[in-house]
Amino acid sequence: MTKTRCEVYSRIVGYLRPISQWNEGKKAEWDARKKTTKRENTGVSRTKVRFTEKKKAKAKPLPIEVTQDEYLEILKVGKFMHHKVAFMLSFESGLRISEVVNLKKEDIDEGNEQIRINMGKNSKDRIVNLPLSWRPHLIKSIPIKCKQRALQKAFIDASITTGLKARKPKIHYHSLRHGYATESLRSGVDLYTISKLLGHEDISTTTIYAHLCPDKAIKELRDKFGKR
């Protein structure tokens, strides 16, 4: 056996000796390494437990919508024409309040009965229908001569006057847009089309309006259930 092999075997034998036979420096180093490894393993296990905890699901209340009759009441008590036009654009065309105040005359195509929304939410453009109640003289109220906060206050004041605020305490300006979606669904417009008109990125956002129209779902069930 060569000298090199002897050295190798002697090293192996040295590794296999009991720890008690190691010198004190090696033993201390081994003990310190074991403690460090144990702390690291404990930290990993705690991290795993932390990430596996289940999050509580957030409650998703149904949106508060304005019905067609309530919308007509609000229009009657509106103080200024530009307020009424703003309410009309949100309820009959589904515009957000930010889109209403940023609307310009050139965005309205009366010939094709369309409105172009430029740079809506998430910087997306879209085309929606012109309100069914639209008349040519209403173009004089565009652009809307007030800011978002003033428009919100005008809607709340009208809701208080009509008693709508007492019946629906959580009503707000965006409820007009909810009313547009709900009335469209009740009229037979499919959810995909409504989602595009509202400018939703995901159709799952639009499906919540189906819960506001249970009569439509019940009627469809009665018409089709058990008739295979």
Structure, explained:
- By secondary structure, the chain is mainly alpha-helical.
- The chain has a domain at 68-212: hpI Integrase, Chain A (Orthogonal Bundle).
- Helix content is 55%, strand content 4%.
- The protein contains eleven helices and three strands; from the N terminus they run H-H-H-H-H-E-E-E-H-H-H-H-H-H.
- Strands 1-2-3 form a three-stranded antiparallel beta sheet.
- A hairpin with a 4-residue loop joins strand 1 (108-109) and strand 2 (114-117).
- The longest helix is centred in the N-terminal third of the chain and has 29 residues, at 24-52.
- The radius of gyration is 34 Å and the shape is extended.
- The termini are far apart.
Quick overview of this protein structure:
55% of the residues lie in helices and 4% in strands. It has helices spanning 3-16, 24-52, 68-77, 81-93, 97-101, 148-162, 164-167, 175-186, 191-198, 203-206, 214-224, and strands at residues 108-109, 114-117, 126-129. Helix 3 (68-77) packs across helix 6.
Pick out its properties.
228 residues; mainly alpha; hpI Integrase, Chain A
Protein topology:
Blueprint: H1 3-16, H2 24-52, H3 68-77, H4 81-93, H5 97-101, E1 108-109, E2 114-117, E3 126-129, H6 148-162, H7 164-167, H8 175-186, H9 191-198, H10 203-206, H11 214-224
Antiparallel strand pairs: 1-2, 2-3
Helix pairs in contact: 3-6, 4-8
